[in-house]
Request: fold
Amino acid sequence: MSARTVLHDADIARALRRIAHEILESRRGDGRLVLLGIPTRGTVLAERIQAVIDDIEPGVSSAGSLDITLYRDDLARTPTRAPQPTRIPAGGIDDAIVVLVDDVLYSGRTVRAALDALADHGRPRAVRLAVLVDRGHRELPIRADFVGKNLPSATSERVSVRLADVDGVEEVTIEP
Amino acid sequence: MTGTLIRGASLLGETREDIRIRGGRIAATGRLTPELDERVIDADGLLALPGLVDLHTHLREPGGEASETVLTGTRAAAAGGYTAVFAMANTSPVADTAGVVEQVHALGAQHGYATVRPIGAVTVGLEGERLSEIGAMARSRAQVRVFSDDGKCVHDALLMRRALEYVATFDGVIAQHAQEPRLTEGAQMNEGALSGELGLAGWPAVAEESIVARDVLLAQHTGARLHVCHVSTAGSVDVIRWAKARGIAVTAEVTPHHLLLTEELARGYDARFKVNPPLRRDDDVRALREALADGTIDIVATDHAPHPAEAKECTWAEAAFGMVGLESALPVLQTTMIETGMLGWADLARVMSSAPAEIGRLDGYGDPLTEGAPAHVTLVDPAARRTWSTGDLRGRSRNTPYTGVELAGAIVATVHGGVATVLDGTLVDAEEVARRG
Amino acid sequence: MKHLLSTRDLDRETAVGILDIAEDMALTADREVRKLPTLRGRTVVNLFFEDSTRTRLSFESAAKRLSADVITFSAKGSSVSKGESLKDTAQTLQAMGADAIVVRHHGSGAAHQLAHAGWIDAHVLNAGDGTHEHPTQALLDAFTMRQRRYGADSRGRDLSGMRVVIVGDIVHSRVARSNVWLLTTLGAEVHLVAPRTLLPAGVETWPVTVHEHLEPALALRPDVVMMLRIQQERMHAAFFPSGREYAREWGLTAERFAALGPDTMVMHPGPMNRGLEISSAAADSSASTVLAQVTNGVFIRMAVLYLLVAGSQEASA
Reply:
């Protein structure tokens, strides 16, 4: 059986806009928002969400990327991969509200590694998690604060997020 | 069984004959009928050569018994088709007195696998300072005729001159290890682009050639006999060719490994390929083969140099020089010289038997296999081919450079003074050899 | 990558990849917490048969920043100097659970043997073998050159168009060998300068231009001048007559340094002989990258340890 598209480009854009609004609403007081995407696609999503936020409320947010390769707990089980750059926006993360952004939330191990990586960069006021797709099957006590779409799936199924900037097409698919 | 009959062997690859051996001599050749008291060796398809003679063997005893002994070394020799070996003097103590050479000689006679003729040191303790008691060694029961400081070069020109003159008195010969010591301080491998890349100190060809050139001129000046050990470079070949053309009494040897292997083997820093003189370039290998074919180089000598595993399982610079070679010598020669058409079997018998016996003044060896001659015989299966492994070694050490290399030919039987030391490619039991010998 | 033994084995893509990972490692130096958990639970052994405090400290620091357990084994004064072989030492260390062995040895080829003799299956990192190679030194030199030339825009770049002059005792220098192979693989144009006595046999087959005198090479306006350390004992072995003559003919004197272009980098693998191969004017100038080389050495060694040790054995073998 071939892949089934569950989000088209317009759906993705709508989901990101909604997430941007929710992030702004959840911001209490005058906290600085730092959106850190987890490479590769999380970085793209973080930039897009931050652009929406900046349109609504200019100057309160910035975007960057946080690579977690060197913090993974499965390094010894997979071939060595090259780390990707980490870019922390000027001003750092101390006392900021950091929103980690990733494309798919699955076992939670990537987020665990990201929390470790983040702690080595400073001490944020709060850390939130935004994902485009939550497909379930958590292996750690981690949940997302902002979800584009909940997508119940079987572990045998394959969920793929493709973004125009990286893949040339814009869609989320699921295939058996 | 009081006699042996070799049936159907091809003599030097030419005529097909039976050989009857009785009382240590060849009793008859031709078409013979087996007698009741004879062991019959079926030599159909095999070649019969006069027993091989090695002018350059390190038996290590006394002092180096962890690597080899007279017994284990002569067993390796027999397995390689040898019936006589000349044992180098760099033992501990050094073979620089009649006492040491007689001991080594007697051990060989006692074990019986091959005749052991000790080589005497040219200088006391191989130190290159004072002549050793050459006359005493020559007159001893060991009848030393070859003198060498092998492993070290007799580099002092005056001492070399005197040594050449003095051994001539006893019909002896100086076998020179040609290596200019100052040009080879710390040297690890052939000097060239590869040594530069690998960061190993080079052993330049000129360090050998300059000594060979000086020595042939000294031989000319003194009229004495000079033998050049393990020639390894095309330049040395040129010098020796020139000297022979001038009638200088120089002979020369080449090792099997210098006829087959090149410096490229050093690339993996595997110390089994560390040897002195070092493995050289393709051009040198080609020149050495041509020189052996045209007679510029007189003989093949193994420079069999056993070392214990720990002397080779270390970094290249710390490893000992040398490789074992008695068992593999004839297969390497068949592979490099016979199968390339550069030598025939009669030539091979000359360079591996009669010529080394002649240079070493060893009577009764290398003679044609005719009625009345001493029964030193090597039977070779020229059709055999095998991939060499340490399982093919019969000495005490395992440092062969040929593991994994396909070599032609196999020794099927060796007869030393009428006593079979190898039968069906297998060494005969030591007690039996000692009892019958 | 299973081992790092020589820069000759590295292709352009791999070499640039190592430099890029070193950039990531360099970023961690500015953070609040400099340590990474990457090699937690892995053991890195520094096996040093030759004294070299700075290289040893650099490797120790790199392994510790990656959270590896570090065992340092200085062979001097240990069982090794009492006759234990390289093989036995290596097998002992492997039995202690070494995932990687960083080896420094006075014998050319020692690292190659550890990696390929079948004695052990740990990863082997050559930290200098005799007069053969010192690959991490060349990598940190290349990293330093790229940083100076391209700054924050370094990632993904090689050294195409750069002209590097290496001066001094080439024949005995593992740094020179590793640099020649690596820098030319990365597209740099390499010139060697030395008296003939200090040039290796077969240098004419190397992918470099050889000069016997320094002036013609400096006249080419190089981007980098790398001065090699001259061992004092060489002059006793007739490689050159005296330190004074060497400094005059092949040293980077204050006058020669002053004539260099304003952007020319002056490199030295350390430790320096001031007044012999390099003048203080050159060594202490802003053109000198000597201290940056030390800093960058840690990042390069972190990158290499990461590449060698972090991944699964099967996948990286």
Observations:
- The beta strands of chain A are 4-7, 33-37, 61-65, 97-105, 126-134, 146-150, 158-162, 171-175.
- Residues 9-26 of chain A form the longest helix (18 residues).
